[in-house]
Every structure is written in C-alpha cells, then in structure tokens.
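Agenda item 2: riboflavin complex prediction
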Amino acid sequence: MKLVVTTSPHIRSSLSLQKVMYTVILCLLPALFWGIYYFHIRALFLLITCSISTVVTEIIFKKVRKKPVSIGDGSALLTGVLLAMVLPPYLPLWMAALGGFVAISLGKEVFGGLGYNIFNPALLGRAFLMAAFPVQLTTWGIPARASWTSLDAITRATPLATTLPKFSGNGLYPLQKLLFGLHPGSMGEVFSIGLIVGGLILIALRIADFRIPLAAFLTLVILSSIFYFTGENYPSPSFHLLAGGFLLGALFMATDPVTTPYTKKGRWVFGMGMGALIVFIRLFGGYPEGVMYSILIMNAFTPLINRLTRPLPLGGKK
Amino acid sequence: MKKLSFPGGVHPAEAKLTASAPIENLPLPEKVVIPLQQHIGAPNNPTVKKGDEVFTGTLIGKGDAFVSSPVFSSVTGKVVEIGNFFHPVTGKGIAVAIERKEEEVLDPAIKPVEDPENAEKEVLLETIRAKGIVGMGGATFPTHVKLSPPPSKPIDTLIINGAECEPYLTCDDRLMIESGQEIIKGVKIIQKILNPEKTFIAIEENKPEAISSLQKLLEENMEIVVVKTKYPQGGEKQLIKAILKRDVPSGGLPLDIGIVVQNVGTCFAIYEAVYRGKPLYERVVTVTGEVNNPRNLRVRLGTPVSCLVEFCGGLKEGVNQVIFGGPMMGIAQISLDTPIIKGTSGVLALKRKEFPPEYPCIRCARCVDVCPTSILPTQLAKIVKFEKWDLLEEYHLMDCIECGCCVYVCPSNIPIVQYIKAGKDKLRRMKK
Amino acid sequence: MKSYIVFIKGLWRENPVFRQILGMCPTLAVTGYLSNGIAMGLAVVFVLVASSTVISIFRRLIPKQVRMPTFIVIIATFVVLVDYFLRANYPFLSKKLGPYVPLIVVNCIIMGRQEAFSSKNPVWLSFLDALGMGIGFTLALVILSTVREILGFGTLLGHPVLGQWFTPWVIMALPPGAFLSLGVILGINNTFQKKSTR
Amino acid sequence: MDFLLIFLAALTTQNIVFAYFLGICPYLGVSRKLDTALGMGMAVTFVMTITALFSWPIFYLILIPRNLPYLELPVFILVIASLVQFLEMYFRKAIPHLYSALGIYLPLITTNCAILGVALFMVLKKYDFIHSLFYTFSTGLGFSLALLIMAGIREDLDLAPVPKNLKGAPLALIIAGLLALAFMGFSGLVKGG
Amino acid sequence: MNYRVKMILTLLVVGAFSGGSLSFVYNKMLPKIEANLKKEIENSLLLLVPAASYKETSFQGKRVFVCRDKAGEVVGYAIIGKGGGFQGEISLLIALDKEGKKILGIDILESQETPGLGAKIDEPFFKKQFKEREAEKLEVIKGKAEKENDIEAITGATISSRAVVSIVNNYVAILKEFVEQNR
Ligand SMILES: Cc1cc2nc3c(=O)[nH]c(=O)nc-3n(C[C@H](O)[C@H](O)[C@H](O)COP(=O)(O)O)c2cc1C
Ligand SMILES: Cc1cc2nc3c(=O)[nH]c(=O)nc-3n(C[C@H](O)[C@H](O)[C@H](O)COP(=O)(O)O)c2cc1C
Ligand SMILES: Cc1cc2nc3c(=O)[nH]c(=O)nc-3n(C[C@H](O)[C@H](O)[C@H](O)COP(=O)(O)O)c2cc1C
Ligand SMILES: Cc1cc2nc3c(=O)[nH]c(=O)nc-3n(C[C@H](O)[C@H](O)[C@H](O)CO)c2cc1C
Ligand code: SF4
Ligand code: SF4
Ligand code: SF4
Ligand code: SF4
Ligand code: FES
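Presented output:
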C-alpha cells in the first residue's frame, strides 16, 4: 500500500477560494435581479459587458505573462459584476468595457494578480471612468417605456443629486422608495433591502468581516446625526444610509479582504475612516457621492494601517 | 461562567470516536524495534549489542548529557540487530530490534522507591530521570530537566495538562477516567519536587467524565479548571493564557514566569516509575480514524504500527494516509513498519483526497484571526515565498508553535506551516 | 565618430526620462498639450546647452569647492533669461507653463550633466552631449504630450484629429492621467528594452 | 480657519506631489522603505520650513525694496543650497542624534524641486510671513504623507509577483496615478490656496 | 594664488556677471511684460465694453474699472470678481452698462476647473448667456432655461456653473453700489 505523506495539519476547513467568491456573487443576486428588473434590458447588457470585459482582460494578462489562467476562481467575474453594479445603467457599453479593462489591468494585474492588488479593482475601474467621462458617469436615468426591452431612458437626478446645492434636506425621494429601490441610481445600489439581506448573509457566513461595515455604519450615523440635528437642512442619517452607494459599498466592497486591513483593529480604523470621509465628501465635497472615493482613499492607507496595528505576538515586546 | 480560553484557535470536528472505549492491552508483538532517540535533547548510545538477551525493562540505551533520557527494552527477548530503522519523527534513525521470547520476565533491577510518600526530593528526581520519563504531551522533553528549575526561577504554579485538544485523540481522557488515582499520586510527586503554591488540572469541557472522576479524587492544593473546547487549548502557552491570563515571553519558557506544565500521561508515568519502579516502556495509544474498530490500546514501545492496526480490525478500504499523533500536528508516516515511541499518542488513518492546489492569498485574515500566538501567518508565508529573509524576525517567525490553525482555515490552501518551517531553517542557518 | 555617439546616446540609449528616470516633474506637469511639451522641451534644451557650454569653457577656472554654487548661479541665470523671454514674447505659453519654467533650475538632468560631463569634457563634446540630452528630453515630452492631448482632448496642437465620434478622456488632462500614461509608457519601453538586449 | 484650509489643502487637493508634480524624483527614489520615507519626509518638511524662514525676509525685505525681483530664483536656490550645507554641518557637530536620523537625506535635498517649488509658490500666492511658514510646513507634511503612503504600498509589493517589466519606476508611477485618482475624492472638499 | 581668494573671486565674478546680465534683460523685458499683463485685462475689457480708456480704482478692496469713450463719457463699469470653483479659485471680469442696470458681459480671467468640463465656463456659449441680462439675481438651472433670470448649466459641471453665477451675483451687487455712488 502506498501511503501519502503530507505536512500537518492533515485536515482542512471546508472553505475554499472558489466558494468565497461565488458566495459573494450569490449574495449580490437579489440586488442584481432587482436592478435588471427595474432598469430593464440595458442593465442586463451592462452586466454582461462588464463581466466579459473583466474576465477576458484577466485571461489576456495571464496568457501574456505565461501564468496559469485562473478564471475559475471567480474573482474576475465578481469584479465585473460589482463594476456593473456601480455604474449608471444607461452608460454607453464601450465605456463599461473600458472600465472592466482598467479594473483588471491597472487595478489588479499590474500588482501581480489576485490577492496582491492595493485598490479595489471594481471601484478603481469606476473611478477611472468617472475621471475620464464625468458627464456620462453622472447622467442617470430610468427606463422611458414600460416595455422590458426598451433601450431609451429618461434622465433623472439621483436622490443624492436632488439634494444639491449642498444642501436642501432629503431631496425628493421618501424612504420607502429608497428601501425598495424605486429611484434612479447605479444598477446595483438601488435595492436597499436586497443589499442588506445579502450583506447580512455574507457576514453571518463569516465570508465578510463585520467590523468594517459596522464601524462605517456607526461613524456615518453618528456624524450625519450631528449635522442633521444641529445644522440647517442637512439630510437625515437614514437618507445617508439608503440614498447612495453606502450599503453596497460598506457590505460588499469595503469588505473585500484583499484591499482592506488584515488586523482587527485595522478594520475598525478602516471603517471609521470610510464613514467619516463619506459624510464629509457628501456634505462638503465637490461630488454628490463619496462612497467610492472613501473606499479608495482608505485602500491607499491600508498598508500603513496594517503596519501601525500589527498585533503583538503572545508574550512579545515591541 | 465564562469558559477559560485564549485568543485565536479553531474548532475542527472533535471526532473522538474512542471516547468510551476502555484501554485494552495490545497483545505483545513478535518483534519490537526501539529507536534510541525518543526525546528532545542529546542522543543516546546503545548499552546492548547484537545477540544480547534482554528482559522487559532492561536499559538498552542512554546518554551522558543532562538533557537526555534513557530507553528500555519493552519485551523479553534477544537483540537481533542494531541499525537504521524507520523512525516516526526523523524518518530513519538508529534503533534496537528485539525478537520476543514466549515468557516475559521483568528486569530484576526494577524496584519501587521505598516509602514513596516520604521520599526525598532528590531521590524522586533521580528516579524520574533513570526511568526514562519524558513529556507525554508530544514534546518528549526529558521530564527531570523540566522539574529541575534553576534556583533563580522559583515555580509558583503547576498546571497539569489534560486538555487533549487534538481531534480524534482520547488516550489522556481514558487515562484520567481509568487511572485517576495514579495520576493524582503522580501530581503529588511533582508537587513535592517543585513545591508550587497552586496546582491546576486543566481539562477541556468536552470530557465531563474525566472531570467528574478526577474531581472526586482531588487532594488539598489541587484544583480542576474546565477550559473551553478549542484547538490548541492544550498548547502550554495557550493554557497558561487561558487559566492565569499570563503571557509566556516571546522566545521564553513557562519556567521564566514561574510555571511548569505537565501532561496527565506524564504524571501517570511518574507514578509508575516511583511506586512500581517501572521504566517507561509502554504507553496508551489511540488507534482511530478509518480503521474498522477504533480503540485505545496500551502498547509496548517499539511495536510496529501494523500490529495496532491489525488488532483494530485493519484499515478501511481506500485509506492512504497513516498519521502518528492527531490530525492537526501529527506526522504522516511512510510505512506501516514504523514503531510506536514515547511520544506517540495516537495512530490516525485517513482517506486523503487529491490535494487542492495552492491559490494566491486573498488576505482574508482568517489565519491572523486564528493564530494563537497572534503573529501574521500570511505575511510569514509570503516573506518565505519571496525570500525577503531580513523580514522574518521583524514578523516574529520564531514565535510560531506550528499548531497548524492557520493552514486549517486558509481558503486558498496555502501550506503556511511548511513555509514557516522552511523559514525557521533558513533563519537558523543564517544565524550560524 | 565619438562626437556622433556623444550626441546620439541622449536621444534614446541614455534618454533622461525613459532610461534615467530624471526630470520627472516637468515631464508630468506640462504634458497636457503638445504645444506645452514642445515649449518646455526647447526651454530645457536652451538652458542645458547654454550652461553646459559655458561651464565647459570655464571648467578649469572653477575651483572644486565652489563648483556647486557656481553651476547653480550659471544655470539659474539662463533659466531666468528663458523665463523673461517667454513672459515678454509668449505670455500665453508662459502662463501655461507657470512655475515649471523657473523650476528648470533644479531639474536634475541639467545639474547631472554638468557634474557628469561638461565639467570634465571639452566644449564641443559638452555642447553635443547637452544637445543630445536636451533633444532626448524633448522627445520624451513630445511622446507623452501627444498621447495625452489626443486621448484627453481629441486634438493635436489644438487641431481636432479624431472625429466627432470620439469622446475625450478627461482623465488624460488631469494629474492621474499624467502619472498613468508615463508609467504605462515606461513599462512598454522596458518590455522593448528587454527584448532588444536579449 | 485660514490655517486649517491651508493645512488640509496641502495634504490633499493641493498635494505637492499629486497636484503639482513636484519632488517626483525623490518621490520615486526614496519610497521603497517606510523608515527612509519617514526620514526623507521629515528632512524635506524641515528644510521647506527653514527655507521659508529665510527666503521670505530676503525676498520682501531686500529684493523687492531694491527692485531686484529678477534675482528671486538665483537667490532662493542659493539660500536652499547653503542652508542645507549649514544644517548638515551644524547637525553633525551639535545634534548627532538628529544628524543620524536626517543627515543622510540632507545633501540629497538641495536639488529637489519641491523645495524650490514651495518657495516660489509662497511668493506667487502672496502669503505673509506667518502664512508662508505655515504653508511650507504643511506642504512638507503633504509630501511626507504621499511618501509614506507610497512606501507602505511598495513594502507590500515587495511580497508580490509584480510583472518584471513594471518593477521600479513604471509601477511607482502607476501607483502614484492611482493615488492621485483616489485623492480626487477630496476635490471641492478643501478649497485652500 | 590662495585658493580661498580664488573661490571668492570666482563666486564674485559669476555673481556679478549673472546679476548684470539679468538686470539688463529684466530692464529690457519689463515694459513688455507689464504691457502683457495689462493687455490681458484690457483685452477682456475691450471685448465686454469697447471704450477708449479704462481707469482702474479700488472699491471695497476690489478692482473696479471705469470705462470712457474718446469724449471722456462713461460708457460702462467693470469689476474683477473672485470665488471658489470646483477645483480652486475662479477670477472673472464682469461689466455693467453706465446705468448699472444691464450686464454687458463676463469673461473668465483665471480658473483651475477641469479641462473639457468645468473649463467650459470660458467658452462663448456659456459666457454669452450673461450678456444683456438685467443686473438681478441670476439662477442656475439644469436643462433649458425657462425664466428670465435662468442660466443654463454646463452639462456635467453644475458646480462650476453655479460658482460663476454666484460670483457674478455677488460682484454685480458691489459694482451697482459703486455705480450708485459715482454717478
Ligand atoms: C459603492 C458605490 C460607490 C459609489 N461611489 C460613488 C462616488 O464616489 N461618486 C459618485 O459620484 N457616485 C458614486 N456612486 C454612485 C452613487 O451612489 C450615486 O448613484 C451617484 O453618485 C449619484 O450621482 P449624481 O448625484 O452625480 O447624479 C457609487 C455607488 C456605489 C454603489
Ligand atoms: C499546538 C499544541 C497543542 C498541544 N496540545 C496538547 C494537549 O492537548 N495536551 C497536552 O498534554 N499537551 C499538549 N501540547 C504540549 C504542551 O504544550 C506541553 O508541551 C505539554 O503539556 C507539557 O507537558 P509534558 O512535558 O508533560 O508533555 C500541545 C502543544 C502544542 C504546540
Ligand atoms: C474628473 C472630474 C472632474 C470634474 N470637474 C468638474 C468641474 O470642473 N466642474 C464641475 O462643476 N464639476 C466637475 N466635476 C463634478 C461632477 O461632474 C459632478 O457630479 C457634477 O458637477 C454634478 O453633476 P451635473 O452637472 O450633471 O449635475 C468633475 C468630476 C470629475 C469626476
Ligand atoms: C467579501 C468580498 C468582497 C469583495 N469585494 C470586491 C470588490 O468590491 N471589488 C472587487 O473587484 N473584488 C471584490 N472581491 C473579490 C476579490 O477580493 C477581488 O477580485 C480582489 O480584490 C482581486 O485581487 C470581494 C471578495 C470578497 C470575499
Ligand atoms: S487564511 Fe490563507 S488566504 Fe486568508 S489571509 Fe491567511 S494565508 Fe491568506
Ligand atoms: S502561524 Fe504558527 S502559531 Fe500561528 S496559527 Fe500558524 S502554525 Fe499556529
Ligand atoms: S532634479 Fe528634479 S527633475 Fe531632476 S531628478 Fe531631481 S527631482 Fe527630478
Ligand atoms: S532628494 Fe532627493 S532625489 Fe534625491 S535621493 Fe532624496 S531623496 Fe533622492
Ligand atoms: S523632483 Fe524631479 S523635476 Fe521635480
């Protein structure tokens, strides 16, 4: 009989990389389905374009670098799906494809591929598009006709944009609409309930760590309450939570393990920084929405945060 | 009550298949192969030669150094060979092969200590040394060394380790249930030697029977502490953290903070050495996993593992891995001829599937969260992988206890411990 | 033959930007438009050539201990000349290049050439060396600003070159675009360099 | 409020590296390790502030009254060069501790355009003396911040299989680009300067 | 020669040479440079209020211009306004007619708005919206202008558009005050 020799430990938990990635995609589905239903077929096209673009880009890079093609792990697909979810549903498809290319090339492969990137690839793709095509990236809409296959849109401002000039209360959309996703916005961000459910499942499964979302949530609520209750005409904390990309960002993007701190303390710091930046950018910054930039900025600080919060080994001295 | 615990750790399936299987004596094998090196420390030299007749308990190897521990024949018979044989830890090593005779005779030198209750400390220590007692918790460090702390380091606390946190293993559990009295006597001997202010017997909460049976036997200045069921609760630094909330300094020993930790099996062996004069030539081994009848066996050292397996009804169809020890820290064996030694607490048969490939680390920090020594396993693995040797110490490589928690949880299947061992090798070589 | 090599090496083989990674600041700052890139390139060519020549002429007269201050003063003089020249005659360009013209003073290419070459070599060679390096620098600016102007505005020297269909990439006109395009160009350049040395 | 705005702007929207592209060569050169980045950052901050301390009075109390604005550039650069020399000598003798921390970076700073840059900006922005000091100090901190972030990232990338052709300057530039992209999030938030 | 002397001599010579040549060039170029600076504003002024002479004065710390024709008759007034835009400060020139009732036009002097986006505030289609407006509070609107005082925002640059309009509103008020006092 042949005995195989391996190093200890000889048993493993059942979690695998593939399971992690595909579970995240599954948890995104409620919000994703709603986005496609609400914005009709263009949203579906957007999803397909982004997914193909990220996956193909990754294949090309792996081939050029003569590395094994590892599309099966699902991370490139996940990046594509998330990218589609944060883009305006009526964005020209070629821009979406460019975004996917940038997300994987500049956002992931230049750093060495999966696991080594500094910035969140999906958001980096979006930030690139935002800087390249600001007009298109701030043009939002809802379907022009009831027909499901209709390609036209009526331009409508998002809830956050209706509160401009900074600031005039909660804008035009009541909270019920925000909860059920009956408002313009990015394809994947509108259906708040779906995002909350999916995100909580992700946290319950321990695939996402609760610390960053919780810290961001608390910081956002506390800071926005301070403004809401002391200033004139600032939007309410619940509006902050539901009107923009906060839920999608905090639950699915700030929890990206690769680009966030690996220490527990660091994750609290990351979440607090993110929450504070969101409030300040939204209330005082040049953009209506700050979720993307807050995450990217905190991504940049992540190596330093890791450094400063490095745990002391048991019984260790500095 | 909040269960005593330490930060980090994992909860693999307990799989204590043999928890209610009483300890049985394994029939004596035809031939034993007794490695001369069964402890940590200086090597032993053989004291017998080919052709010698030996009794059960006859000294067959010893060393001169303080940190060494003699080995004894485990059967009565004839030395047929002294040579290189399979060794469960080092792969191959010098061993004495003895062919058994029908009749068993105890070595005449075996005599109990007189009036053990009132014996001198020095006598007790010398007995422990002479009878080849080593730590049975797996480390096999010579016990008399551990029990001779330098005067500059007084011991205030003794912890008896009955945690047995490795999945599958039940030998300590059964020993506590069946031989509580003997263990308590062993503990008293250690107390006598060290004179600690406090003594704790630590048992994981998943062993209620052991807890209740020992509870009845406790003597003064002994206390049972129930610790949380979690791997590696039995690691001494973790146990100390859990019970006393004290940290063993990085790179140091429990001794440095006035603590000695001894395994329950060690206490039992001390009892036998002192009260019966018996050298360490047998031990309890859990044979478990994919064998047909998992059991707890009392086994003579040097018995090839094939005998144990056969007694337990043989391996199940498809078994392709046999491990000495538990699934988390045990060592996979190349051959079924490998002998049981002092430190072998279990024999685990597994059906291993095709190994999953190693994927890139996604920095999910699961390894960081479970690491009981709070180091950064993912960073260490990468440092070794990309050969940035100068960073190893900055990231506290040497603090790793190789418990394997990090590998257990890693979704990317990164053999972190393997990288860490390579790193430790490199560091030692660089220091030279 | 030797003078030919002294001149030609700065163009590509020892190109200050692509190969020596020097003079990054102006390279990034003024390459939003091709016209700015060319103007900056020419300004550097002038300062580099003039100061190299002057320093080479007087190289034996300048004591070692005061070499740095002397060089600095000489370079600074020529830089201010260029600055005032632009301000007087091309106010529009001058405004666009802003403080980056005076900052030519500290451009390491210029100081580096004095230290490495013209303080040790005869006038003619120093002149050629400076000219080569200056043109190499200009070349790099031209390449970078061409990419950025085309992608960022769809124009070249202000003339539309891509049709109506093209949506300009605003990012190319912004700081991130500058860093990213230079990084990508350097990466591509590395690839070719490796290929050709292999 | 004035000071706060100057401070925040120098760190973010008007960051000398991300917005003005100054000091890029040292930025690429000494951002490989956090320790050196910290040392360089402190040295630059220190020298920038001292530069303002000296060149502001020289410019406004000597050059301008005498109608010699054209000497601004040669004088500033000479001030910087000699300051650095003096500081180095002084540290070496008087504060060896500081010398070992900052000294090795001092000679490298002379030809750093960021230092001359802030001195010129200080004049362009017409700051008074106190504001100039504060502005140059903040700008130095902004430079240090950019340097530290970059060094943190590059230390991480030491443990990554980055493509060979991008190693070094190309990747550092790309990262700087991505950082500038992320820092765009501050636009409008701080309208200093 | 003593090397110290030589050092000092070298520095002196170089310094003198440098100072000399710079002073020469400076004095030669200065008029042209100053003319350029003046021309920049005058060019803008000429576009907004064609006149023969522009007299600059200061009012409430702002730069104000009184524009007269050949005959010395006042034909209009202008003011340099400043305010925060999307990226940094925007400075622009605003001209009013001689009654201080109508805006004659605006021109952007300096801005750091995003090229291709906010920088479009300097394009005619945006600036000409201000021409001939009543000097009342103007308002920015996204999409088609409907009311009297609506200014159409530049697509994707509402913030810059709003910044310009708010500067115009603020400084028109100041200039009107000036006109009141100086009539
Ligand atoms: C995770 C996430 C991050 C986002 N980040 C930004 C952002 O940084 N800036 C932005 O304008 N929109 C961002 N969006 C889209 C916004 O939430 C929102 O739809 C949009 O900002 C409203 O645009 P408008 O106000 O310019 O019309 C983000 C969406 C998500 C889901
Ligand atoms: C990860 C790990 C797990 C351990 N688990 C146990 C255990 O469950 N029981 C035990 O007695 N010793 C265990 N040990 C060994 C103890 O750390 C310690 O060496 C032992 O209790 C000392 O007693 P001994 O010298 O009598 O063996 C473990 C060690 C490590 C590193
Ligand atoms: C790279 C970039 C540059 C921008 N530049 C400007 C600008 O110069 N002026 C401006 O008003 N908004 C600018 N914006 C802001 C957005 O376009 C903002 O969402 C917009 O002003 C509000 O949208 P709207 O004009 O479609 O209502 C910029 C955004 C980006 C991403
Ligand atoms: C909880 C979780 C969240 C993730 N979020 C993102 C994300 O926001 N953007 C992204 O590109 N990838 C995300 N990923 C996938 C993966 O980490 C990503 O592809 C890597 O950043 C690429 O190296 C996520 C993965 C997990 C497990
Ligand atoms: S558990 Fe594995 S994948 Fe997760 S951080 Fe550790 S090494 Fe990386
Ligand atoms: S790094 Fe070492 S101590 Fe930490 S979990 Fe891994 S094996 Fe255990
Ligand atoms: S002098 Fe300036 S341009 Fe030249 S390398 Fe140094 S920092 Fe860069
Ligand atoms: S100044 Fe400077 S360029 Fe230069 S080394 Fe420092 S850091 Fe580098
Ligand atoms: S640092 Fe290099 S030119 Fe500025």
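Discussion summary: The first strand of chain A starts at residue 141 and ends at 143.
Owner for follow-up: CH.
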